[in-house]
UniProtKB/TrEMBL annotation:
Entry keyword Chaperone: no
Keyword terms, alphabetized: Amino-acid biosynthesis, Glutamate biosynthesis, Oxidoreductase
Lineage of the organism: Bacteria, Bacillati, Actinomycetota, Actinomycetes, Kitasatosporales
UniProt keyword Amino-acid biosynthesis, yes or no: yes
One Pfam entry name: Fer4_20
Pathway: Amino-acid biosynthesis
Protein name (database record): Dihydropyrimidine dehydrogenase subunit A
Domain FAD/NAD(P)-binding: from-to ranges: 146-456
Gene that encodes it: gltD
Domain Dihydroprymidine dehydrogenase: 39-131
Length: 486
């Protein structure tokens, strides 16, 4: 145990954010650079090194949290990095983007603020990059087997890296023009600068992984032909079909899915555009959806100079503290104030959009909404609560409904789907097609980045065993595992 009295003598302290007036003028990460290292060792010392560390259960990767907390407390950064990488291929991604179910399951969190596990994690990996402790791990020998990975999000990259290190020759196919999937184009720069993706890609290239961009399996290459070309295939194409809002006026100009809007602002940062084709500048912006993607739209609109930003959520406002129906160590639904919400705008709960109105040119101008409430377990509109708000740009951030079937990938492979429209798989993450496996949201449905990485690692074990008859690769989860919730 690092500091036997740390949880008693040290209070929780998190990373400092830059002033709002400063950060909304750029696209850099919102945190003050270097603000964690002076405090993080003491924060790691708050870990109680529990006999049964429930943070392991909260994290699907099974991260060795008490161990690397201990090393971080002692400032043994090299050992901390080794323990961190033992279970997680990309801790710089999860340390920035994961909502930290590990912290919700922290034993200290029963009656005190939990350990800042996420901040400790990102401090360790950033220090490892700075000191050169993150190096390519090329395989000692090649197996002679080839694997195609479809999709370069966190699940695809994790599977590819594990299989490359096991000695297989791996090629990652990505339909976008750059590697990273939603990490690249769905996450704004102010949440994670893309340098973190770029250097991991270079590490993977040095290990032997090949990357093929602007190739969509199903359209550019027939899926059945791809299967014949490789000894195994991993489908990690994500759940990219956005949930729509079929109400009158949906066809008006200025109403876009979040994943139509967000990638364009990222492309500006990549140098593809001077100004994005879809911009919030000078407009009244309405974001429909109260989750993380909605918050990303809010922060992006602020930086583009929106006249106003309103975020709508159909569900009631969550509470500030756990309610009895969501006891420790489950992941609770709490009122969450992200960095984007700190920057301004209005959040409206328990409302539903009834229709949109536009001008004579077909451009959206207003959104009509009504309050809703639960009646006999169903959301019902409250009479007399209808009103309209100005809306010149509307982004739909209501989640995703499944993997893309329009490109022909599912049909060409002949894949079976489960009752939720996800690609069905067995205990080894194998589909009904011999040699074809599925990892990430394509098989699980919309989920978190930490689950995607865990899926990629677990599917890699299934592929390795299929190719060689046995595998020493870790499999942190089963396809049927679910988050610790109620």
């Amino acid at each position: 145990m690092a500091d036997p009295k740390g949880f008693l003598t040290t209070g929780r302290e998190v990373a400092k954010t830059r002033p709002v007036g400063e950060r909304v003028k750029d696209w850099n990460e919102v945190y003050v650079p270097g603000s964690l290292l002076p405090i993080i060792s003491k924060q790691a010392g708050r870990c109680m090194d529990c006999g049964i560390p429930f943070c392991h259960n909260g994290c699907p990767l099974g991260n060795l949290i008490p161990e690397w907390n201990d090393y971080a407390y002692r400032e043994d950064w090299q050992a901390a990095s080794e323990r961190l990488h033992a279970t997680n291929n990309f801790p710089e991604f999860t340390g920035r983007l994961c909502p930290a179910p590990c912290e919700s399951a922290c034993v200290l969190g029963i009656n005190q603020p939990a350990v800042t596990i996420k901040n400790v994690e990102v401090s360790i990996i950033d220090k490892a990059w700075d000191t050169g402790d993150v190096r390519p791990q090329a395989p000692e020998r090649l197996s002679g087997k080839t694997v195609a990975v479809i999709g370069s999000g966190p699940a695809g990259l994790a599977a590819a890296q594990q299989l490359t290190r096991a000695g297989h020759t791996v090629a990652v196919y990505e339909r976008a023009d750059r590697i990273g999937g939603l990490l690249r184009y769905g996450i704004p720069e102010f949440k994670m600068e893309k340098v973190h993706i770029n250097r991991r890609i270079e590490q993977m290239r040095a290990e032997g992984t090949k990357f093929r961009t602007e190739v969509e399996i199903g359209r550019d290459i027939d899926a059945a032909k791809l299967r014949k070309r490789y000894d195994a295939v991993v489908i990690a194409a994500g759940a990219t079909v956005s949930r729509d809002l079929p109400v009158p006026g949906r066809e008006l100009n200025g109403i876009h899915f979040a994943m139509e809007y967000l990638p364009l602002s990222n492309k500006v940062q990549e140098g593809d555009f001077v100004t994005p084709p879809i911009t919030a500048e000078g407009k009244h912006v309405v974001v429909i959806g109260g989750g993380d993607t909605g918050a990303d739209c809010v922060g992006t609109a602020h930086r583009q100079g929106a006249a106003s930003v309103t975020q709508l959520e159909i569900m009631p406002r969550p509470g500030d503290e756990r309610n009895p129906g969501q006891p420790w160590p489950t992941f609770p639904m709490l009122y969450k104030v992200t960095s984007a919400h700190e920057e301004g705008g209005e959040r409206v709960y328990s409302v539903s959009t009834t229709h949109f109105e536009g001008d004579e040119d077909g451009n959206v101008q207003s959104l009509h909404l009504a309050e809703v409430e639960f009646v006999d377990g169903k959301l019902t509109q409250k009479p007399g609560t209808e009103r309209s708000i100005p809306a010149q740009l509307v982004t739909l951030a209501m989640g995703f409904t499944g993997t893309d079937q329009a490109n022909g990938l599912v049909q060409q492979f002949g894949l079976e789907l489960d009752e939720r429209g996800n690609v069905a798989r067995d205990a080894d993450f194998a589909t009904n097609v011999d040699g074809v496996f599925v990892a990430g949201d394509a098989g699980r449905g919309q989920s978190l980045i930490v689950w995607a990485i865990a899926e990629g690692r677990s599917a890699a074990r299934g592929v390795d065993r299929y190719l060689t008859g046995a595998s020493d690769l870790p499999a942190p989860i089963r396809p049927t595992d679910r988050a610790l919730t109620v």
